[in-house]
Structure formats: structure tokens, C-alpha cells
Write a structure and sequence with these properties.
The complex is a heterodimer of chains A (207) and B (177). Chain A has 207 residues and is α/β, with parallel strands linked by helices. Chain A is 43% helix and 17% strand. Chain B starts with 5 loop residues before the first helix and ends with a helix. A 6-stranded parallel beta sheet of chain B has the order 2-1-3-4-6-5, with helices on both faces. Chain B has 7 helices and 6 strands; from the N terminus they run H-E-H-E-H-E-H-E-H-E-H-E-H. The chains are: A alpha/beta (207), B alpha/beta (177). At the A-B interface, helix 3, helix 5 and helix 8 of A face helix 3 and helix 4 of B.
């Protein structure tokens, strides 16, 4: 499958109250086109930090949910944070795998959509094209719930299980083909709007 | 239980008074007391991180999730974080409180600290980060007011602690640790 196919599967499975953080470049543009929603944080710069942003959000909502803050009579939702990340991005912030393995944020699914390339800059090869296996690094860092797969059915199964179990972190390395599925327009949203959207979303569903 | 001085405690209490409830840290010898205090504080979420840039990403997430984040770091880490500051923190407008130990200035013994030490304030200026320098203890009561500016403007602020702020104390506790 192509990365856009993987993103589509992910977005079919996540619940209305889950938060999605997407990597800069093509992944964010694909996510915007496939299923834009207020709960999507489109990272536009700062390559490598999608997973870190996801870690921060998951720790914050874990604290809020633990403190039992209720939402004016509405049912409290057990939200998860799903990070749509890439191989090049993980390589640039390699320490993030260590942080995930040590800090262990429960409400986090890190989906590494591995196309073995830096897609947004012209598909130059990354180390995963030269023998590096990110899932092995993740396991060595102590992320016990690490999966490596390439079929849609496998992705659906693992993601569903992760969202229901609520006991991460989960690292799902999905091998995807290089290339775009279709033409991608740039995201028209201003960064401050993206920020406002996600803060409102979290306030509405969780805080 | 960690080691900290009276000055560390005064600074720490004011940081909390400013509203900070989430801290990431990369150690500096001069911040050992503050880090020790935050490690033992159950009210605050504290995440030691591998690199300042990573820490800034985590702080951004924490803010989006409703918290009020700070990073305890050495000024050298500013160099490691500039892209995150410009294309994430400033681009989206995220308030992060930078508690920065300023090395490479008066009192510095290590030559490698001097290059970054000499451009730290320039970096903060170029990055449009409002900063204040704590020359001595008399500035401590200002800390909450400065921190609250960050939340109000949804922009980062930095509080610089140069070597001489800690007086002779830092050297003592650095050697004991």
C-alpha cells in the first residue's frame, strides 16, 4: 500500500475523540485531503518533532483524565494520540524512541509509515533503505508493543487493539511504497488556526 | 531526596507561582538544585529528555493538551533548538518558559562554553523571545510576572541565570554531586 492508503485506514479506525499528529510535508497534506478534522495537528515545520508533540499531548491528557476533570455532564472520552510519522523524521529525532521506551506514555500510538525515503524532498534514500530496521530499534529502546507490518488487514487489527487496550506506548512500523497516490494541494490553514482547533478539540472532548 | 540550596528553592517556588505545571529538562551543573526539586515534586509532570529540541516538541504537545510548560536547560541547548523555536514555537504561537542557565559568561572556567555564551542573548533577540536576566536574588520576585506574560501572549519567554547569580554555591554543590 502507499502511505496515503495507510493514512486512510488509520482514519477509518480512529474514534471521533482521538487526536492525530501528522509529520510535515506529504503526510500532513495527505491527512488533510483524506480526512480533515479539528483533532488533527498538522505539523508544518520542525522536522522530527511529530512524535515529541504527540508525547506531550498524551502526557497532558493522561494527567487531566487521571484528575477526573469532567466535561459538564458529557461522557469523558478515553482519547488516544495517534502520531503519523515517517522514517526520515524518526531518524532526525532518534532520541524519541528512547524517550518512548523510558517514559512510556500510555495514550500514544506512533505509526511510522516507512517508505524508505525522504519523500517531500525528492525521495532520497533514508537509512531504512540501507538496512536499518526501526522496529528493532524501538524494541531495543524498551517499546514492548512494537509491530512491523505491510498489509492493511494487519494495520487495522493492530491499531484497533491498541486503541481499545489504552495501554501503550505502541509503535507500529508500516512498510509502505514510495510515492504519492494523487496530487496534493498545500494545507490552506494558518498555523494559529491549527493550534486553536486542536486546543478547542481537546477542551471539548477531554478537559 | 535531592540537594538544593535556599536560592534554588526560592526560584523554584516562584516558577510554580507563575503557573508552570509541566517541565522538561536537560541538565546543567548550575540547575542541579532546580532539577532535584522538580524531580521530587509530585504536583509537576517532569520529563528528562535526550535533547533540548526534543524537549521543546514535548512542551508544545503539553501546551496543546492544556498544560503550562517550562524547559530547564543550559544556554548551549538554544543552538540545538533553533528550528523548533522558529518553525514550531513561534510559527504557531506556543508559550514555553525557558529557564536557562547562562554559561560562557563571567565566571566561566570552560573555554568551550564561551562561543555560545557570547551569542545567547543575540539568539534570543533574533528568535523574538522576550528575555530577562537574573543578575542576583533581588530579581527572583519578578519571576511569576514574567512567566505570566508567556501565557497571556501565547509566546515564549526566557529567564537567564548567569553564573554569578548562583554566587559561590553552585561550585560547591557541583563538586559534591
Amino acid at each position: 500500500m502507499k502511505r496515503a492508503d495507510a493514512i486512510e485506514e488509520i482514519m477509518k479506525i480512529i474514534r471521533d475523540w482521538d487526536i492525530v499528529v501528522s509529520n510535515l510535508g506529504h503526510p500532513s497534506q495527505e491527512l488533510y485531503k483524506i480526512k480533515h478534522r479539528e483533532g488533527n495537528f498538522y505539523m508544518l515545520g520542525s522536522m522530527g518533532l511529530a512524535s515529541s508533540i504527540g508525547i506531550g499531548i498524551s502526557l497532558a491528557i493522561e494527567r487531566s483524565l487521571k484528575e477526573g476533570k469532567k466535561q459538564r455532564g458529557k461522557k469523558r472520552r478515553e482519547s488516544m494520540v495517534v502520531v503519523i510519522d515517517g522514517d526520515g523524521s524518526i531518524l532526525m529525532n532518534f532520541g524519541t524512541l528512547a524517550t518512548l521506551g523510558v517514559v512510556r506514555p500510555r495514550r500514544l500510538v506512533l505509526a511510522v509509515l516507512d517508505n524508505k525515503s525522504y519523500g517531500s524532498t525528492g525521495f532520497q534514500k533514508t537509512y531504512t533503505c540501507m538496512g536499518l530496521d526501526i522496529s528493532e530499534v524501538a524494541k531495543a529502546c524498551g517499546i514492548e508493543k512494537t509491530y512491523k507490518l505491510k498489509e492493511k488487514s494487519g494495520l487495522r487489527k493492530v491499531l484497533r487493539k491498541s486503541l481499545n487496550e489504552l495501554n501503550g506506548p505502541y509503535c507500529i512500523v508500516v512498510e509502505v511504497e514510495k510515492g504519492l497516490r494523487e496530487e496534493l494541494p498545500p494545507i490552506p490553514l494558518k498555523p494559529r488556526i491549527i493550534k486553536k482547533n486542536i486546543k478547542n478539540f481537546i477542551r471539548r472532548w477531554i478537559l | 531526596m535531592g540537594r538544593y540550596s535556599d536560592i534554588d528553592k526560592k526560584v523554584y517556588d516562584r516558577i510554580k507561582e507563575g503557573g508552570v505545571n509541566f517541565v522538561v529538562s536537560v541538565p546543567c551543573k548550575f540547575l542541579a538544585g532546580l532539577i532535584s526539586l522538580v524531580e521530587d515534586d509530585k504536583e509537576i509532570i517532569h520529563i528528562p529528555v535526550t535533547r533540548e529540541e526534543e524537549g521543546i516538541g514535548i512542551c508544545v504537545g503539553a501546551f496543546l493538551g492544556g498544560m503550562k510548560p517550562a524547559i530547564f536547560m543550559q544556554n548551549s541547548g538554544l543552538g540545538n533548538s533553533l528550528n523548533a523555536i522558529m518553525s514550531l514555537v513561534n510559527l504557531y504561537g506556543i508559550p514555553i518558559v525557558f529557564i536557562i542557565s547562562h554559561r560562557g559568561v563571567e565566571g566561566e572556567r570552560f573555554i568551550a562554553q564561551k562561543p555560545m555564551g557570547s551569542i545567547t542573548k543575540d539568539i534570543l533577540n533574533i528568535a523574538d523571545i522576550l528575555w530577562i536576566e537574573m543578575k542576583d536574588q533581588r530579581g527572583i520576585p519578578e519571576i511569576p510576572r514574567i512567566i505570566k506574560i508567556a501565557w497571556k501572549r501565547e509566546k515564549p519567554v526566557a529567564i537567564l541565570f548567569p553564573i554569578k547569580f548562583w554566587g559561590g554555591q553552585a561550585n560547591k554543590k557541583g563538586d559534591k554531586a
